[in-house]
Amino acid sequence: MLLTILKSKLHRVRVTEANLNYAGSITIDEDLMDVASLLENEKVQVVNINNGERLETYVIKGSRGSGIICLNGPAARKAVVDDLVIVISYAQMTPEEAKGYKPVVIYPDSQTNKLK
C-alpha cells in the first residue's frame, strides 16, 4: 500500500502575476523551487488563502531570484495579484517510508517571496 504524504510546501507566497493567455501552470522562482524541493513539471496543489480556491497544476521554472509566483491559463481565474497562496506537493510512500519522512516547509517573506 502507498500513502500520499506532504512532500513540500511554500507557505504564504504572494501572487505576483496572473497570465490568462498562457497554456496553464504556475511559474515559480527557481530559488523557491530549489529550497522547496520542487521540480519543473511537478504536480502541485495551490490553495488561495484570500478566497479559498484550490487547484492542481504543474510547475514551470521562473527566473532565479525574481520572486515570481504566476498563475497561468485557467488557473489565473483563481487568484489575483497580491493574493497569498500555499503551494503544496505530495509524494507517495510506503507506510514505513512515511513514518521517517520529514516534509520541507518553507516560509518565504510574504511581501517579496524572497527567502528569509
Q: What is the rounded distance between the termini?
A: 38 Å
Low-confidence residue ranges = none
- What Rg is obtained from the alpha carbons, in whole angstroms? 14 Å
What is the multimeric organization of the chains shown? single chain
Description:
This protein has 116 residues and is mainly beta. It has one domain (9-92): Barwin-like endoglucanases (Beta Barrel). The chain has helices at residues 30-35, 95-100, and strands at residues 3-14, 17-19, 25-29, 43-48, 54-62, 69-72, 84-93, 104-106. The longest helix is centred in the N-terminal third of the chain and has 6 residues, at 30-35.
Summarize the structure.
This protein starts with a strand and ends in a 10-residue tail after the last strand. It has an 8-stranded mixed sheet. It has one domain: Barwin-like endoglucanases, CATH 2.40.40.
Features:
8-stranded mixed sheet; about 10% helix; 2 helices; globular; mainly beta; Barwin-like endoglucanases; about 120 residues; single chain
Which secondary structure elements does this structure contain, and how are they paired or packed?
Layout: E1 3-14, E2 17-19, E3 25-29, H1 30-35, E4 43-48, E5 54-62, E6 69-72, E7 84-93, H2 95-100, E8 104-106
Parallel strand pairs: 1-8, 2-6, 3-5
Antiparallel strand pairs: 1-7, 3-6, 4-5, 4-7
